[in-house]
Amino acid sequence: MEVIVYNSKGVDTGKKVTLPEEVFGIEPNQHAIYLDVKQYLANQRQGTHKSKERAEVSRSTRKLKKQKGTGGARAGSAKSPVFVGGGTVFGPRPRDYSFKLNKKVKALARQSAYAVKAKAEKISVIDSITLEAPRTKDYIQFLNDLNLTGRKTLLILPDVNTNVVLSSRNVQKAKVTTASQVNTYDLMNADQLLISEEALSTIQSLFEK
């Protein structure tokens, strides 16, 4: 699959690059994508939820009323879950939501995510992007030139570029990452992938291992 290469001003450079077939041309595995996204979201959960159960509520333990003769159900403690302010029955407890996922499944998920975006023609290749200083307005202008204002974008670079990262940090719906650090969730969450021309070879080499 061939795509046009644009410069940082959004102008067609006249060049075309062929996306690696072994990454962008495979048949997407939707279940692998689901598992990888599920693991990513699960790992974001703190798992610090907690409610007090009967043994943890600070209330009197005296018997509220006599056992018999009241015409109502017996009641032994104000901590009982049937009373307002009593303990919670089977309430949430702190737990770890993370789970293991094989490396090959995660790699297949990323490949599948790339393939999904390629089939939907949601990939743009940029020859290079360099910013002299970290300025948010420069990155906004970069997106404006590509007609991507207001859309979720993911810029994939071959290496960390501090000026680009800092310039994009306060731009809503914009994220910058590197080819080796990108994850399936970010790929699927973006409306448009912006891939540096140099990053394409890095992406290809990662899946050749």
TrEMBL record:
Outline the segment boundaries, as ranges, of region: Disordered. 45-78
Which cellular components does GO assign to this protein?
ribonucleoprotein complex; ribosome
Coiled-coil regions in this chain?
none
Q: Which family does it belong to?
A: Belongs to the universal ribosomal protein uL4 family.
What this protein is reported to do is described as: Forms part of the polypeptide exit tunnel. One of the primary rRNA binding proteins, this protein initially binds near the 5'-end of the 23S rRNA. It is important during the early stages of 50S assembly. It makes multiple contacts with different domains of the 23S rRNA in the assembled 50S subunit and ribosome.
Q: How does it assemble?
A: Part of the 50S ribosomal subunit.
Q: Name one GO molecular function term.
A: structural constituent of ribosome
Q: What name is this protein filed under?
A: Large ribosomal subunit protein uL4
Q: Per the UniProt entry, what species is this protein from, by scientific name?
A: Spirosoma validum
Report the Pfam families cross-referenced here. Answer: Ribosomal_L4
- GO BP terms: translation
User: Do the record's keywords include Ribonucleoprotein?
Assistant: yes
For this protein, the record's InterPro entries field holds: Ribosomal_uL4, Ribosomal_uL4-like, Ribosomal_uL4_dom_sf
Q: What Gene3D superfamilies does this protein's entry cite? A: 3.40.1370.10
Keywords of this entry: Ribonucleoprotein, Ribosomal protein, RNA-binding, rRNA-binding
Top-level division of the source organism's lineage: Bacteria
